Amino acid sequence: MNHDPLQWGRPSDEHYGTYNKSIASASPYPSMHTQQPIVTGTSVISMKYKDGVIIAADRLGSYGSLLRFSDVERLFPVGRNTVVGISGDISDMQHLENLLDEMQTENNYDNEYAEDEEALKPSYVFEYLANVMYNRRSKMNPLWNALIVAGLEDGKPFLKYVNLLGVTYSAPSLATGFGAHLALPLLRKIVDSESDVKKTSAEDAEKSIKEAMKVLFYRDARSSRNYSIAIVDSKKGLVLNKDAVVEDMVWGFAKDIKGYGTQNV
Amino acid sequence: MTSIGTGYDLSNSVFSPDGRNFQVEYAVKAAENGATSVGMKFKDGIVLAVEKLVTSKLLVPGKNKKIQTIDRHVGCAYSGLMPDGRHLVNRGREEASSFKKTYATPIPLPALADRLGQYVQAHTLYNSVRPFGITAIVGGVDDDGAHLYMLEPSGTYWGYKGAATGKGRQSAKAELEKVISNKPELDAREAVKEAARIIYLAHEDNKEKDFELEMSWCSISETNGLHKAVPKDLLDEAIAFAKAENGDDSDSDDSSDESENEKDNEKKDAEGDVQLE
Amino acid sequence: MFRNNYDGDTVTFSPTGRLFQVEYALEAIKQGSVTVGVRSKKFAVLVALKRNADELSSYQKKIIKCDEHLGLSLAGLAPDGRVLSNFLRQQCNYSSLVYNRKLSLEKAGNLLSDKAQKNTQSYGGRPYGVGLLLAGYDNSGPHLLEFQPSGNTLELYGSAIGARSQGAKTYLERTLQDYLELDDADDLIRVAVEALRQCLKDEVLSTKNLSIAVVGQDKPFTILDDEAVSPYL
Predict the structure, then answer these.
(1) Do the beta carbons of residue C152 and residue C29 sit within 8 Å?
(2) Keywords assigned by UniProt (chain C) (predicted)?
């Protein structure tokens, strides 16, 4: 019998081994990791052309199948030569937005060349984001997104992808999410390989992106008619249009669709 | 300085019998010996100007910037020990960044000045650190308009319309008072010129040394509320104006006699205080 | 030798606002052998005079490479120099791994400044006892920086630190307009070596005691020692 009053009621060391005090001082909360996205943004699509890149994403934030938020910006300019397009969880996207904001603020600290030679380049932004994504997945706590970094670097188009797994790749046309299935084949009709980039004009690329956004709005049930489209062009610089709308649609067939929703025919 | 040698001035965080903290007073001396810094408020912003002494012909002109940015909307100039100034600015950046993370809005200038004041004050409390050897002028624009503060080694800070510190502070202050009372409605570009003129004027007592003028501004109309270096053409214009107003016909930026300059360098090396200003 | 009561540590200001411990640290640089740095619009060059402890010992390394585009030479306490060069190597690696970006010389200088400043404001340590010349070529071209233990880092066209370095400084000031326009790296190295000669007293430059480094456009930071320096003697 241990006569120390502080040990009364405690399991005796003799029988149970020394008491592990770290159990008593453990956090009352379970450790929490992201296991699914909540509010989501759908596809980001993009392609290179001879003088730059185009990237587009619609403005919808879906809560499951509920089209919950109708005006969410998912294209983020970083400096003058880069646009980051983000799909997936919107709150994680907002976290990434803060990181990009901080990155830009820090690049301006004591940087005499912040406007030209030492301005942020797309590859800097991409490498950083890819590291963030990979580090988070390695903690088993990913940011639930797929991102496309588009821009101009040393006069050449730059386009790369990274997702919640930390996987990265590059191609002359890229899309995330549903767009990777539905839009990418359409974009590849114009630029399938790197050699096609030189042959593609800004007009053709923009037309192709707009067409792909239309197809996505037709067939992706978590998409919206309003979207943003950004162009980074070697001559015109970075232009972000936040008021693009899918046009020239045909919905005459819709009245004949039967068997869905609440209609009682 | 009658109390020198009584022992109460040998350690920070110690009061003398008459209630003074000597180490803080000595830190003020370090700041007062530094090159002149000026800050001025105008209608919709602030301008910062510093005298950058050219200690060697080998220094790359236009580089070695002294004015720093704390956050996008806040600038900082200081006189005294330049590395201490960098330390303070780094702290300011941490405060600005943490504020933005917490409140999702840029830090208001009064809040920043207060936090920096607390940090500087904390360096007067312990004998394991020394006070900051600088007086810093912090200015910028927030939702409530333009703000200008000057922060002393004791941790005291005051809001100003026009602030000056460093060697030439006396004449700079006198001139600031005149300008601000005579022309209370200065716009950004006028203020830049006046600040340039004041630095040139404050340099008069220190004429044997070469210097460069460095300026930054932060205004709603001219820089969209961002703290930026004054663009080259306006800076040149301001320098021309300053020289004309001060009746300075010789070009101060490159008018040094070589041999004199050499001698100057050697002397400073011997004293070892060149880079400490 | 004792000047006063105010020079015992780094946390005490003198009545005139000076920090003697920091000033003494600057003196430590002058105990080291001389090193000279110079840059043109295309290249940056470092040269240094190496010392040996005695006849049988090797010569103390004076130039350290930090990255493909950046290196430094030192004067003063060599171990302190190694601590700082290791720090810079880490920072270079961090920049390229995380941002795919070359560490700019400006940033490198600021990082060193901030690291050195910490040692001058708190009790229990001492300032670094080494001066550094950083040479590198980044996105904005070639740069030469001088670092001091006080936490000041300055960008210069040419500089010299260490014993009797004033001779080289005077030489570099006088010939500034000539070497700034040099197109050829070898010619710039010759200027630097000539500047170094202005600092010699009893020594004679040889393949043993001369160390050279050059960096520039399409030229990674390269250190030349021993026989490789003979063309410049």
Answers:
(1) no
(2) Cytoplasm, Nucleus, Proteasome
Residue where the block lists tokens 């040889």:
C206
Degrees, nearest 5: CA angle C200-C204-C205? 95
Residue numbers of the domain that contains C105: 33-232
Which residues in chain C belong to E strands, given as ranges?
35-39, 43-49, 63-67, 70-76, 130-138, 141-147, 153-155, 158-161, 210-216, 219-224
Q: For C75, phi and psi rounded to 5 degrees?
A: -140, 130
Q: Are C67 and C74 in contact (CB under 8 A)?
A: no
A158/C contact by beta carbon, under 8 A: no
Closest CA of chain B from C132, distance in Å: 14
Between CA C226 and CA C207 the distance in angstroms is 5
Catalytic positions of A, please? 34
Domains of chain B, residue spans? 33-245
Sorted by where each begins, the domain ranges of chain A are 39-245
Q: Where are the beta strands (DSSP E) in A171-211?
A: 173-175
pLDDT tens, residue order, chain A (265 aa) = 678 887 777 778 888 888 777 777 877 777 888 899 999 999 999 999 999 999 999 999 999 999 999 999 999 999 999 999 999 999 999 999 999 999 999 999 999 999 999 999 999 999 999 999 999 999 999 999 999 999 999 999 999 999 999 999 999 999 999 999 999 999 999 999 999 999 999 999 999 999 999 999 999 999 999 999 999 999 999 999 999 999 999 999 888 888 877 766 5
Give φ, ψ of C97 to 5 degrees: -75, -45
Structure token pair of residue A189: 């009709």
Report CB contact under 8 Å: B97, A102.
yes
Q: In chain B, what residues touch A110 (CB-CB under 8 Å)?
A: 65, 68-69
Q: At what angle do helices A90-107 and A122-138 cross, to 10 degrees?
A: 130
In a domain, C100, yes or no: yes
Superfamily of domain B33-245 in CATH is: Aminohydrolase, N-terminal nucleophile (Ntn) domain (3.60.20.10)
In DSSP notation, C91-128 reads HHHHHHHHHS-PPPHHHHHHHHHHHHHHHHHBTT----
- Quote the CA–CA distance of C62 and A57 in Å, as a whole number: 55
Query: Which top CATH class is A39-245?
Result: alpha beta
CATH of the domain at C137: 3.60.20.10
Chain length of chain B: 277
- Residue A117 in contact with partner chain C when CB distance is under 8 A: yes
Does residue C184 fall inside a structural domain?
yes
- Which residues of C fall within a CB distance of 8 Å from B89? none
Is C16 in contact with B63 (Cβ distance < 8 A)? no
What angle is formed at CA C93 by the lines to CA C91 and CA C98, rounded to 5 degrees? Answer: 95
> In this complex, do A127 and C100 lie within 8 Å of one another by their Cβ atoms?
yes
Rounded distance between C-alpha atoms, residue C130 and residue C29, angstroms: 5
Place of tokens 């105008």: B42
